[in-house]
Design brief:
It is built from 12 helices and 16 strands. The protein has 419 residues and is α/β, with parallel strands linked by helices. It comes from Rubrimonas cliftonensis.
Length: 419
């Protein structure tokens, strides 16, 4: 049971513990935060419990989520994930199916305290015309609760085709972000230049899956940085995964990271999914953690975020769009402690800036979107899942709970007959 009274209106949250700042009082005034307020405001004594800003999840796949019960990964491999998702997409991804799973994922994220979220959308063939309108409807429906963005997801060797140009136009019409999966192809230089030029022409930011592999010879992160420097692209560029960077010789990795910093790229690490998929071999213990060089990138001034990525699909069998879970595992996997420093920003303020949304901060005049945990120090925060957390949105406590998995049972029934 929570140890505090639920705030139901304007009040003062007394003795709130802000990570890295100690104890202070916070006033909830309307839907905003203040650090000074009326002395006679109702008091909710948090007794030193940790208060964090609403989470920002800048790399997810809502269109893939929760297909595991009907289409699991046969062997836990990356190739098994690709083939399983492709088969499920071809057979089952109707507007009804995508909308139901997307809504389920958003309800999970909202209940856990996420205020902004970016999803990638498989944008290949007819799926483009199905998933983007479904996303647009969800974005409108969730406005004021979760700020939603979407990225088109295609292989880099599709860039330059008429199909990619059509996909880029669809994404642009829906206010989306231009994306692709980069991997070594002979003409990657010209393809990246074209992608950036198309993004600039349409006023779009760019979000790329980059080097999601343990192969040290996969070095397209360097190519992305060089392309941005070469073209002078002025929009935001986010690179996800970048796993092979951690497998490369130190001098090569350092040179690439210097270019990443010079090109003002941002990087998001996805530790849960990459731990699950990478360095997996039958009857062999994995050696690699699947995370990129987050400390070294951050030391160069590169904005570094963490995100949830896939949820209960062939790329990751688990997850619940809970950014506290992502934080707990990222701290363990990537050693985001000793000292903790400002790493908590990588789950809120930093991804908010990457996305260009106003969220993820506890500051004067900021939205009163907070998550209160029954924990008084770092180890208490990260030692339990805290399903009893208190989520405050717009200055009011919400009573949202993650949806029941049984609600997804409808997705395993036959599609209704067309009239």
């Amino acid at each position: 049971m929570n140890r505090w009274t639920r705030p139901e209106g304007d009040c003062r949250l007394a003795h709130a513990r802000l990570l890295g700042q100690g104890l202070r009082d916070i006033w909830l005034t309307g839907d905003r935060i203040a650090f000074e307020g009326p002395p006679d405001a109702p008091v909710v004594d948090l007794r030193g419990c940790i208060v964090m800003p609403g989470f920002v999840d800048c790399h997810t796949h809502l269109d893939k989520g929760h297909i595991w019960p009907r289409t699991p990964n046969p062997d836990g491999s990356f190739q098994g994930a690709l083939e399983s998702v492709a088969a499920d997409r071809e057979a089952r991804w109707s507007a009804r199916d995508v909308a139901a799973r997307m809504e389920f994922g958003l309800r999970c994220a909202y209940a856990h305290g996420t205020v902004a979220l970016r999803t990638h959308l498989d944008s290949i063939g007819p799926q483009t015309g199905i998933s983007w309108p479904v996303f647009a409807e969800a974005r409108d429906r969730w406005a004021g609760r979760i700020a939603l963005q979407a990225v088109c997801l295609v292989p880099i060797d599709m860039v330059g085709s008429d199909a990619f140009r059509e996909t880029a136009d669809v994404a642009a019409r829906h206010g989306g972000v231009l994306g692709a999966v980069t991997f070594p192809v002979p003409d990657i230089t010209s393809r990246l230049d074209l992608l950036l030029r198309m993004a600039a022409e349409r006023g779009m930011d760019v979000d790329l899956h980059v080097d999601e592999t343990q192969d040290p010879d996969a070095a397209t992160l360097r190519e992305v940085a060089l392309a941005v420097l070469r073209t002078g692209f002025a929009g935001r560029v986010l690179c996800g995964h970048c796993c092979s960077l951690a497998r490369q010789p130190d001098d090569a990795a350092s040179a690439t990271m210097d270019l990443v910093a010079a090109a003002a790229l941002s990087v998001v690490s996805l530790p849960l999914c990459n731990l699950y998929l990478q360095d997996r071999h039958a009857a062999r213990t994995p050696r690699s953690r699947g995370v990129t060089l987050v400390h070294e990138l951050k030391a160069r001034g590169v904005p570094v975020a963490f995100a949830s990525d896939n949820t209960r699909d062939p790329f990751y069998a688990y997850g619940d769009h809970d950014m506290l879970e992502v934080m707990r595992e990222a701290v363990r996997v990537a050693h985001l402690d000793h000292p903790v420093s400002d790493w908590p920003a990588a789950f809120a303020a930093t991804p908010a800036r990457i996305m260009g949304v106003k969220a993820g901060e506890i500051a004067q005049g900021a939205p009163a979107d907070l998550v209160v945990f029954p924990a008084r120090e770092w180890t208490e925060l990260l030692s339990r899942p805290h399903s009893d957390r208190l989520v405050i949105r717009g200055g009011r406590a919400i009573d949202a709970r993650p949806p029941d998995y049984a609600e997804l049972d409808q997705l395993f029934a036959p599609e209704p007959a067309q009239a």
